[in-house]
Amino acid sequence: MRAGRTMEALAARWGVVTARPEAGMATAEYAIATLAAVAFAGLLLVIMRSDEVRGLLLGIIREALSR
Fold first, then answer.
1. Residues 23, 25, 30, CA angle at the centre, nearest 5°?
2. Which residues 6+ apart lie within 8 Å of 57 measured at CB?
3. Which residues have a Cβ under 8 Å from the Cβ of 23 and sit 6 or more positions away?
4. What is the Cα–Cα distance from 22 to 10, expressed in whole angstroms?
5. CB 48 within 8 A of CB 54
6. Domain coordinates of the chain in residue numbers?
7. At what angle do helices 51-66 and 25-48 cross, to 10 degrees?
8. Within a 13 Å sphere around the CA of 32, how many CA atoms are in the beta-carbon half?
């Protein structure tokens, strides 16, 4: 008897899954976009910490303030 209930529950769940095959796709897309944003922020952090970029930015700021 228990196996019959398990099979019915499994069949019901399978019906839900196959009725909406793209359910949850938006969540996966948000997760991928969030990971891409975090990777981009990490890349910017590495670039901004370099001495060359820091010197370039300081030069731009000094020139802007000296005018």
1. 140
2. none
3. 17
4. 19
5. yes
6. 24-67
7. 80
8. 6
Q: What is the pLDDT of residue 25?
A: 66
CA 6 to chain centre: 36
Look up residue 40 and give its two tokens.
């981009």
Cα 50 to its chain centre, rounded Å, is 26
Classify residue 24 as left (phi > 0), alpha (psi -120 to 50) or beta: left
pTM over 0.70: no
| The Cα angle at residue 22 between residues 19 and 27, in degrees rounded to 5 | 135
Average pLDDT per block of 10 residues along the chain, 67 residues long: 78 77 74 94 90 91 91
